[in-house]
Specification:
Length: 306
């Protein structure tokens, strides 16, 4: 059970390892792009290519889906970013339970957006966890974990790709050890749990009353989606790349003020530190580096204030 591209390496690893996959269960096809064209997910395309039946419940707990899935049956179910919480009626179907691949070091960042939240919160280490799925949201007993560093060069794309491969390798290791009864499930400490709620588009609006490091992290976490933005002289300005410093600011200058514009970066005052915008995009314009548009920008403007 999986839907986005993050889950694709897990499906591919199961196929390559020779497991008999009775079905792939994924979310219904959705319209994509500017023209709202219905397109199959890569999960569905891979299943079809490998002659694996595909099921696409709108809501897996309703419309007779538990019975239909029960009729297919399986020894073990695997979930990775499926997008729906599984009811007890589904979890009781696999003979040996359901293993979930989650993109955080549980119990940190339970929920829908663990990778983005880890970057935003300035985590230096994250990873993947395999766990036994229960009726809660990422609350089941943990099986295996693998860590990786989050560097300042990472954004959501690089972290996503790295964790997806790590997750697929950890999944196969988990299943092999699980088959041999060599894993002792470990209960999560709920007192240490943090949550990673679904990303909302409005979270991309930059608030320069925050620290420069925080904004730098938000930009990395939200590029390409939902993107980060502010306004410049009444026009929406998307921020796609930035740097930051901890330099001390003049407290008499309003947060969000453009302090300086150089060939390759624009310095903006934050509550603490300075955000250096290096790549941006105005509405109805192509993305561009500062050297391509800096001559059209003016110091002293307060971003977001128009």
């Amino acid at each position: 059970m999986g839907t986005p591209d993050f889950a694709l390496p897990c499906l591919e690893a199961l196929i390559e390892s020779g497991y008999n996959i009775n079905a792939v269960i994924t979310q219904p096809d959705r319209p994509k792009g500017r023209h709202n064209v219905i397109e199959f997910s890569n999960i569905k395309k891979t299943a079809i290519k490998n002659n694996i039946p595909v099921l696409q419940p709108e809501k897996i707990r309703k419309d007779n889906w538990p019975q239909r899935i029960s009729e297919i049956g399986c020894d073990l179910a695997v979930t990775c970013a499926f997008g729906q919480i599984l009811p007890k009626s589904i979890l009781e179907i696999p003979k040996y339970g359901t293993i979930n691949v989650h993109a955080s070091l549980l119990p940190k960042f339970r929920g829908a957006s663990p990778m983005q939240r880890a970057i935003i919160e300035g985590e230096e280490i994250t990873g993947v966890t395999t766990m036994l799925t229960d009726v809660g949201m990422d609350t089941g007993d943990m099986l295996l974990k693998k860590e990786t560093n989050i560097t300042k060069e990472d954004d959501i794309c690089s972290l996503h790709d790295r964790l997806s491969i790590m997750g697929s390798n950890l999944l196969i290791d988990t299943i092999k050890l699980y088959e041999q009864d060599k894993i002792v499930p470990v209960k999560q400490d709920d007192s240490l749990a943090t949550y990673a709620p679904m990303i909302k588009k409005e979270e991309g609006k930059l608030d320069f009353n925050q620290d420069a490091l925080r904004l730098f992290n938000v930009i990395r976490a939200f590029n390409p989606w939902p993107g980060t933005y502010t306004s410049y002289c009444g026009k929406t300005m998307k921020i796609t790349k930035a740097e930051y410093s901890d330099d001390v600011n003049d407290s008499s200058i309003a947060n969000g003020t453009i302090l300086n514009i150089e060939k390759d970066k624009m310095a903006v005052k934050c509550e603490s530190g300075i955000l250096y915008i290096t790549e941006l995009q105005f509405e109805d314009r192509k993305r561009m580096q500062l050297c391509q548009c800096g001559h059209n920008l003016t110091c002293g403007i307060t971003l977001g204030g128009c």
